[in-house]
Design brief:
By secondary structure, the protein is an alpha+beta fold. It is built from three helices and three strands, in the order E-E-E-H-H-H. About 45% of the residues lie in helices and about 20% in strands.
């Protein structure tokens, strides 16, 4: 498992903790620190166990109000960073 703490931009959560499988292909866990508690918990439950690529394809670019991003969009950035780091650590 590879873990990453990400500091999101232009959204309410202070951080997003993501864990992906050793090869970076599967989301193991997501935890938002702050934000809309019910929504972020729901998103975290819905993505656990899913392929990183599928979730990034589905949620990247999702926006909230006029911020140009959202909690889900920021999570995809964190997931992609964790995926890349996990794969680099295997090389």
């Amino acid at each position: 498992m590879y873990a990453l703490d990400y500091k999101p931009q232009r959204v309410c959560p202070r951080s997003i903790h993501v864990e992906v499988s050793d090869d970076g292909s599967t989301i193991e866990k997501v935890v938002f620190d702050g934000g809309c508690n019910g929504n972020t918990k729901a998103v975290a439950k819905l993505v656990a166990g899913k392929p990183v690529d599928d979730i990034v394809d589905l949620l990247a670019g999702n926006t909230c109000h006029n911020r140009g991003t959202s909690c889900a969009d920021q999570m995809t950035i964190a997931l992609r960073a964790a995926q890349q780091a996990a794969r680099a650590s295997l090389a």
